Amino acid sequence: MALSKRLKNIQKDLDLEKQYDLSEAIQTVKKNATAKFDESIDIIFNLNVNPKHQDQNIREVVGMPEGLGKEVRVAVIAKSDKHEAATKAGAERVGAEDLVDEIKQGKIDFDFCIATPDMMAKVGQLGKVLGPKGLMPNPKLGSVTPDVAKAVENAKKGQVELKVDKFGIIHVSIAKASFDEAKIKNNFDALYSAIKNAKPTGVKGTYIKSAFIGSTMGPSVEISLSSLN
Predict the structure, then answer these.
(1) What is the tens place of the pLDDT at every residue in 109-154?
(2) What is the pLDDT of residues 62-87, one digit of tens each?
(3) 3-state DSSP assignment of residue 41
(4) 34 CB-contact burial (10 Å; exposed 0-12 / middle 13-18 / buried 19+)
(5) Long-range interactions of 47-50: CB distance < 8 A, separation 24+
(6) What is the mean pLDDT of residues 169-177?
(7) Of 23, 145, 157, 27, which Cα lies nearest the Cα of 89?
(8) What is the DSSP code (8-state) at residue 66?
(9) Averaged over 22-45, what is the pLDDT?
């Protein structure tokens, strides 16, 4: 696909072979996020893992200390005794079997779905609807829990899912280009720490092979891993 004139002009001033320390990389990406909307800041980690092995199939949720710069609409599927707590915590949609039925009919006006363990027999019926959208509640991701208030609060603050693809790559958006450098760095640090802590015991040799930062409509630059350590 041909590069746009805007992207060609940006790349003229970039050394795409260079590895940038984190601060310089953030500054460079922010400078070049010149689209007419508030671009997302994306991070890509290339890991030395083989997701075909169950113990190397990384999947968990990381809270972003500075948020993600967007509203997160939350649905909670729980019995009536949990409804008040979920609503007070800020959930937009709260219900039990009635909410399950609405979702079955295609009413999916939320970005995150939480369920209590005692509702999972009903929620299991939503796999074909919520699964393809990445919205299916999952205990590993903290979205199947009896503590609905805490789960709603965490979702509202902003969190990203670490999920390694079949090539060993994790790709997530951690901020908006309008965030100042310190906020982007704080979110990056939370992500980087979580990825390091998620290192599978079966991985031998180098674990993190490379890391890149870019924006939705801008070029990516490589981050010097030695600058992170």
Answers:
(1) 999 999 999 999 999 999 999 999 989 999 988 999 999 999 999 9
(2) 999 999 998 999 999 999 999 999 99
(3) strand
(4) middle
(5) 47/164, 47/168, 47/169, 47/170, 47/195, 47/207, 47/208, 47/209, 48/168, 48/203, 48/205, 48/206, 48/207, 48/208, 48/209, 49/164, 49/168, 49/200, 49/203, 49/207, 50/168
(6) 96
(7) 157
(8) T
(9) 95
d(CA 51, CA 130): 23
Fold of 74-156: Rossmann fold (3.40.50)
Contact between residue 62 and residue 173 where contact means Cβ atoms under 8 Å apart: no
* Both structure tokens of 158: 């902003």
Query: Where in the chain do CATH 3.30.190.20 domains reside?
Result: 19-67+159-228
- Which residue is it, tokens 């509202």? 156
Domain(s) labelled CATH 3.40.50.790 in the chain stretch across 74-156
Q: Which CATH architecture group holds 19-67+159-228?
A: 2-Layer Sandwich (3.30)
Alpha-carbon distance of 155 to 161, in angstroms, equals 11
Nearest to 45 by CA among 144, 162, 197, 200: 162
Cα separation, 167 vs 169, in Å, equals 6
